[in-house]
Amino acid sequence: TASFPSQTTLPVDNAAAALRPVAGVQGVLAAGAPFWSSCGERWRTGQIEGVASASQHRVGHHLVTMASVSPSIPSCNLKSAFLGERSGIRSTAAPASRIGFLAKPVECKESRIGKKPIEVPSNVTITLEGQGLKVKGPLGELSRTYPREVKLVKEDSGQLKVMKTLDTRRANQMHGLFRTLTDNMVLGVSKGFEKRLQLVGVGYRAILEGRDLVLNLGFSHPVRMTIPDGLQVKVEDNTRIAVSGYDKCAIGEFAASVRKWRPPEPYKGKGIKYADEIVRRKEGKAGKKK
C-alpha cells in the first residue's frame, strides 16, 4: 500500500507542519519535503510548505493517506497531496484541486548523446549570453535560445557541454536534443552541410533562374520556388539537385519542401527522392484473368 505504518515519524526539517493521527497514521511531515505533482500533462517537482490535516482513502486495492497542504506550492498551487511512494494512483473523485504525490523525485537516466562534449574548432567563435548562444565561423553565424531545462558550459579545454538543470523526463529529452542542435551549429559554420535530391520520371526537370528553382513535374504549370537566404542550390543534368549551406535545419526544410511536390510513388518509383533514399516498391495488381 501507499500508506505509512503506524507510529511512523517522517524526517523533520520544520516541525510546524504536523499530521493528526488518522487510521493508525501518526507523524510529522517535513516542510520542504520533495513531491511530484501532475500539472496538466507535465510532471514537475517542488516542495511542500505545510500540512493542515490528513485522512485515509481506498482507491481500488490501494490504501493511501491524503493530506491537505498549504496552497503556496511553487508552479502548481496544489491543494492536496498523497503521502506515499508515487505509484500511479489517481483519485476516483474529481476534486477541484490537482493531486500530487509525496515521493522522492525519480532520477532520470543520463542522455548518452547529451553528455558528450562538443569539440569547437579554432576558427569558430562561441558567445554565451544567459540562455542564448551565438556561433560564428568562416561560413556564417547562427544563434539559438535554450529552454530552462538545459544550460551551456564552456570548459577550459575549449569544449562546449550541454548540462541539465532539472532531473525530469522532459529535461532528459531536451538534453540530447539540444546537444545535437548545438553540434550541428558548430559543424555548420565551420564545414557546412549538403542535401541531394534526384528527379525520377519522364519529363521531370529542374532549372535555376536567378534565386528561383523551377521544377517541371507534370503539372499544367511549372513550380517556382524561391531559394532562402543562406542556402545555395546547384542543378546537375536537370535531374539532380544539391542544396548546401551552414544551417542544417534550413537545408532540411527546403529539401523537404521540394520533395513534397512529387513524393516517390511505390509502383514505378516516379517522383522526387533523396539521393540516399530507398523507395520500397510494390507489385501492381494483376489484370483480370479470362
TrEMBL record:
Signal peptide (UniProt feature, chain positions): none
GO molecular function: rRNA binding; structural constituent of ribosome
Keyword Metal-binding applies: no
Xref: SUPFAM superfamilies: Ribosomal protein L6 (SSF56053)
Keywords: Ribonucleoprotein, Ribosomal protein, RNA-binding, rRNA-binding
Any one of the GO CC terms: ribosome
GO biological process, one term: translation
Residue ranges occupied by any Large ribosomal subunit protein uL6 alpha-beta domain in the UniProt entry: 120-192, 200-274
PANTHER family xrefs: 60S/50S RIBOSOMAL PROTEIN L6/L9 (PTHR11655), LARGE RIBOSOMAL SUBUNIT PROTEIN UL6M (PTHR11655:SF14)
NCBIfam families: L6_bact
Family: Belongs to the universal ribosomal protein uL6 family.
Name of the protein in its database record: Large ribosomal subunit protein uL6c
Species of origin: Anthurium amnicola
